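Researcher: Here's a chain I'd like modeled. Treat it as a single chain, no partners, no ligands.
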Amino acid sequence: MVKTIFCEDAYGKGFFRNLIKKIKKAEPHQLGISIKSTRGPFDSKAARAVAAARMRGKVIVVVDAHGKTPLEVESSVKQACGPIDGLHVVVVENAIEDWVVAGECVDPRKENALSYLRHNHRYEKYKLPSYGERIDAEKLAQKLNSFKDFLEALDDP
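Model: Modeled as a single isolated chain. C-alpha cells:
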C-alpha cells in the first residue's frame, strides 16, 4: 500500500523527502511513500489529486494555516475532498518554516518563522529542502502539535 504526502509547494517535496529520510533512515520510495505538491493553496484540483491518490493507499495532506485556525483549514480541506477514509490532514500553525524555527528553539508563535530565517540564516524558499535533514523529530514533536500529528499520520498503517 502506498502512502502519499501532499505539500503546498515544490520545495516542500525535497523538505519532506529529507525529513523522512532522516526520521525513517531510508528513502521515502523505499518505504512506499510518495511525495507530491499541490503547487499552491489547497483547491479543487488538489482535492481531485488526493482522491486519486487515496485509491492507491493512505494520504497525508500537509497545509499551512496562514493565520486561519487549524480547525477551519482542516474542515476546508476535508470538505473539498469529500468523505475519504485514510485521509490525514496536518495543519501547520502558520507555515512549514514554523517546524524549522521551532527545531532551533525559537517559538514560532512569538516570532515570525520566515522573518527569523531570512534575518538569521539568509533563508530563501529554495533552501527549504536542506532544512528537512536538520530537524530533531523527538524535540519538535514535543513542541508543536502539527509535527506530532504528522509523525502519527506517517506511522499509521
